[in-house]
Amino acid sequence: MQDAALRLKALMEQLLGAPLPVRIRAWDGSEAGPPEAPVLVVRNRRALRRLLWRPGELGLARAWVSGDLAVDGDLYAVLDMVAGLVWERGEDARTLRGALADREVRAAVRGLVRMAGPPLPPAPPREEVRRRTHLHTRRSDRRAISHHYDVGNDFYELVLGPSMVYSCAYWQSPESTLEEAQGDKLELIARKLDLKPGTRLLDVGCGWGSMAIHAAREHGASVVGVTLSQEQAAYARKRVADEGLTDRVEIRVQDYRDVGDGPYDAISSIGMAEHVGSERYLAYARALFALLRPGGRLLNHQIGRRPRRDESAYEIDEFIDAYVFPDGELAPVGRTVSQLETAGFEVRDVESIREHYGLTLRHWVANLEAGWPEAVRLTSPGRARVWRLYMAASALAFERNRIGVDQVLAVRTPDSGASGMPLRARTWN
User: Residue limits of the Polyketide synthase-like methyltransferase domain (predicted)?
Assistant: First the structure.
């Protein structure tokens, strides 16, 4: 008798203390749940073992990446529903995180254990990074950057599109194309930094060279871009050569801590500071301060999280740390501003563009889904699933204000106090 879905639905509702908003399709072909709801596909009993051995976010991620769990229908809708049941009820014992310690749901857990079959823990998917301490040494940072960015330039071209910009775009209109919005973001940064012919710009974490090329081509700047990714550097150098900008743009494989040829007139750090780590952030800010001339500007474009009740408690996003950004850390924007000021900067402008990132991510997900067979060929089925889940879940996180992204404009104001900033704020808009 095909009844696995009905049994699973009943046990999960008992476990969570709430009706399941999704429909379940089990490995025996049975289905249960709201008939019009998106379908969560539990392809085998191993999916249950993954959840039982690692309740919560990491167990769900392992089941998804391995293909033991899938979605038939709107992925965003399913993620939104799961977030409401699991991640956003952190103090409620009736969650997957607290289920094993809740007496009222132990019977449900025993029922799931019986359904799951052999009690051996499944091996994690091969795409998972072994957990390390967050040392943020030069060596560990190189390994983390390589894991994330050396997936293959062809894969990133498929996801990011022709702009090859891997950070939040700036949308003048929802009807703009992704390429237009990314071009507008680069131009916004250039105007905030007041780039002009001859301006010496350091682009920290230069990626595939888009900001460096834009600054040199559109504003006549002389640019040094640094990255820890060999694949990014090779790609960026070819782009620079194709644009005929080798006399104005130099791309280095270099740690920002090893840059010693300042002073620079301006520094852009776009989507890079998330890799620095909270313990080393002040040192990062001081290093950039030292590389700027008096009156020079820093544009720090950085993802931030909402403040926690207890900021002394160290927390990581298990899925992101294991599969996407090893050793990445997010901080509230207030802490970022304080650290920059402690390093000596005068912070002159903070602009939140949170909604812009949700829209950007939805375009990246659409690109990935449209090119799915090619994405799988270029990487692996598991790696492609990692990126689909990571980007779709991140889009919802930005839209629901769980995380944000801010552009912080800061100046190394000279002792005279002459910052060089315009009297009227935001003349770049």
Answer: 155-414
